[in-house]
Structures are given as structure tokens and as C-alpha cells.
UniProtKB/TrEMBL annotation:
This is Histidinol-phosphate aminotransferase. Homodimer. Keywords: Amino-acid biosynthesis, Aminotransferase, Histidine biosynthesis, Pyridoxal phosphate, Transferase. Its EC number is 2.6.1.9. The modification N6-(pyridoxal phosphate)lysine is found at K224. It comes from the Bacteria. It comes from Clostridium punense. Its cofactor is pyridoxal 5'-phosphate.
């Protein structure tokens, strides 16, 4: 049609999300389908969230609070930071874009792991930036090599910890070793979308680092452990001056009323969060045990998913799991052919997955 589309947009692909349950039911004529593909919370959300949503069910016609006042207060209280340090958006996905909008000029470089959350790459490229992709080390981020790749054109370095899709972490000691080598004009993103699931005691405390590193941005989300993925609410913690710049770009009503109220209620329910953590831990140990018995390699995870090696063609395993009513994330879409990422589900879901996987692999 001769549209004058920017070259950066012409080059972008559309994000391929995990297959929705209804689509699989429709396409395969299945009645029961479970989704272990997008690292959603199999326990749903806190009952307190449902109450909070019921309370505002008649308020759909009202714009939400553009300043996210109460939500920022609640987050800051929980984390021990000041409300001016908190910024909120439509999922941390949208905040990744905001960060790129703020810093990336055409030709600027941004460093990320070769296998990590794909939205960093898309957002950098949208701004005309150049992605510097660093090979993995033992399925995790090679943060030393990432930092060594910094040049005078580098604007942003993306540390996804735990890393999606491998579930691996880098430790406080490893981070401490490289932080001093990062110039103050390079923005360090600590994407901690899965922090609530972390069990490793050596996981770095990024909030403690913030006062010393005003170039650090900590990103978190309500989509995972809090179980609010559909409401789209993410947040970040930064030096307050940087937060002011981000807030110039974030749309005034990006976090809708339901998301704001739900997130506040979710923060108040520690018991639910503990249940989520314990359920995930139990599921993780069960899956480790079964994968060990099946002699299938996997990456040790600190998140609510496991990246495992099928040792066969992951496309075939994915298709056959689909037919059994189980949606997972095939590794070929994530840059790891042969592997598969599976969200840790409820006990029943995990058993169903393992049973189906055993049956499929026995015939291959
Ligand atoms: C590492 C990581 N960061 C950010 C996000 C974005 O989450 P949301 O936009 O739902 O907050 C995800 C979602 O899967 C993720 O895995």
C-alpha cells in the first residue's frame, strides 16, 4: 500500500506467545487442556485480589489514578524504598520498551545474553539500536563476557535474573565482580520477574545496590508469583531522577484501575505468596526427580519453570504433548532446539505432564 513504515518496524517479527488454551481446545477438539507454556501461576491469584476486584466492579467507567499513588505507596512500603523510586506500567514488558525509548538512539548498542527474554531485543531494535548478543555459559548468563563487550556505544546491559527461559541465576559474588567495570553511563537492567521463586541464598540483593548504582533499574512484575498476568501490571525501582524520565513516557493511564487495586491487595497477602513458593518448590523437586529417572538433562532453576532437554526433536514432542492436552514452550522457538520449557504446575498438572512425556518418549 506504500505506507511509509519505519525500517525498524519492517524488520520486527510479531511476538509468538504461548498457545492459548481455547485455541488448542478448538483446533484439536479437546475438552481438557492445561497450559504450562507461559510461566503463569497455576494457583491463580490471592482470594484478597478477587474481593478487591469485586469491590470496584461498578467502576469500569472511571479513569484510574494516573499517578498510581496508592500502588506506589504499597510497593515502596513492602520494599523499603521511597515512592518516587517506583514506576509502574502495563506489565514489565511495556517498561522494557519505555527504557529503550529513554536511552536508545539509532546505532546505539545494547548487550544481552544470546538466550534470554526476547522482548529486550525487539524493544532495542524498534529504537534502531544494535543488539550485542553474548553466548551462554552453562545455560546461564555469562555476565563477565557481557560486561567485557561494553564499548563507548553501549547504552543498556540486560541482566535477566533468574533468566527466562533457562531459569538459571548469577550470584551476588559474580555480580560484585563485574559491577565495578560497568561505566556509569551504561544502564544496568536487573529483570527480576521471577524473584519470588528464588531459593538460592547467594541471589544478589539488587535493591541494596541501588543507592550505589544510580544507573541500575530493577524490574519486577505482578504477572508471575502474584498471579495477575491478565491484568498487566509491572513495576520498577530506580533512582528517583531516572524514574521521572520514565514517567514522561509511560502513558498516564497505562495501569488500569483493576490492575492497581488487584496489585495492592496481592501485596498484602503474604500467606498466598508463601503457598505459591512452597507449591513451586515441591513441584520443582518432583519434576527434577522424574527427569533424573528419565535421564533427561535440565538446567537447575530458580524460577517457576524448567528448561529440559528432550534429547529428540522438540517440535515432535511439543505437537504430541498438545494432542495430549498439554501446552509447553518448544525450545526451537527460544533458540534451544531439542529443549523444552515447562512451567511448574500444580501437583496434578505435573503428574499429567510427566505421564504424557514418558508415553511420548517411549515411542520415539
Ligand atoms: C524475564 C521476564 N521479564 C519480563 C516479562 C514480562 O512480564 P509482564 O509484561 O507480564 O510483566 C516476562 C514475562 O514472561 C519475563 O519472563
Amino acid at each position: 500500500m506504500g505506507y511509509a513504515i519505519r525500517a525498524e518496524v519492517l524488520d520486527l517479527g510479531v511476538y509468538k506467545a504461548g498457545k492459548p488454551i481455547d485455541e488448542v481446545k478448538r483446533e484439536l477438539g479437546l475438552e481438557e487442556v492445561i497450559k504450562l507454556a507461559s510461566n503463569e501461576n497455576p494457583l491463580g491469584c490471592s482470594p484478597k485480589v478477587k474481593e478487591a476486584l469485586n469491590d470496584i466492579i461498578n467502576e469500569t467507567h472511571m479513569y484510574p489514578d494516573a499517578s498510581n499513588f496508592e500502588l506506589k505507596e504499597a510497593i515502596s512500603k513492602k520494599l523499603g524504598v521511597s515512592p518516587e523510586q517506583v514506576f509502574c506500567g502495563t506489565g514489565s514488558d511495556s517498561l522494557i520498551r519505555v527504557i529503550c525509548n529513554t536511552f536508545i538512539n539509532p546505532g546505539d548498542e545494547s548487550i544481552m545474553a544470546e538466550i534470554t527474554f526476547p522482548r529486550y531485543e525487539a524493544s532495542v531494535k524498534l529504537m534502531g539500536g544494535k543488539v550485542i548478543s553474548i553466548p551462554m555459559k552453562d545455560n546461564g548468563l555469562d555476565i563477565e563476557a557481557m560486561v567485557d563487550a561494553i564499548t563507548e556505544r553501549t547504552k543498556i546491559i540486560w541482566f535477566c535474573n533468574p533468566n527466562n527461559p533457562t531459569g538459571t541465576i548469577f550470584t551476588k559474588q559474580e555480580l560484585d565482580k563485574v559491577l565495578g567495570k560497568i561505566p556509569p553511563n551504561v544502564v544496568i537492567i536487573m529483570d527480576e520477574a521471577y524473584i519470588e521463586y528464588v531459593t538460592d541464598k547467594n541471589f544478589p540483593n539488587s535493591l541494596e545496590l541501588l543507592p550505589k548504582y544510580p544507573n541500575m533499574v530493577v524490574l519486577r512484575t505482578f504477572s508471575k508469583a502474584y498471579g495477575l498476568a491478565s491484568l498487566r501490571c509491572g513495576y520498577g525501582i530506580v533512582h528517583k531522577e531516572l524514574g521521572e524520565y520514565f514517567n514522561r513516557i509511560i502513558g498516564p493511564f497505562d495501569v488500569n484501575l483493576f490492575a492497581q487495586k488487584a496489585a495492592i491487595a496481592a501485596l498484602e497477602d503474604e500467606a498466598f505468596l508463601n503457598l505459591v513458593f512452597e507449591t513451586n518448590l515441591k513441584g520443582r523437586e518432583y519434576l527434577y526427580g522424574e527427569l533424573d529417572k528419565m535421564k533427561l538433562p535440565y538446567a537447575k532453576t530458580n524460577a517457576n519453570f524448567i528448561m529440559m532437554n528432550t534429547l529428540v526433536d522438540d517440535k515432535i514432542v511439543f505437537d504430541r504433548l498438545l494432542k495430549a492436552g498439554i501446552i509447553v514452550r518448544p525450545g526451537h522457538l527460544l533458540g534451544m532446539p531439542g529443549w523444552m520449557r515447562v512451567t511448574i504446575g500444580t501437583e496434578v498438572q505435573n503428574h499429567k505432564f510427566i505421564k504424557a512425556l514418558k508415553e511420548i518418549l517411549a515411542t520415539m
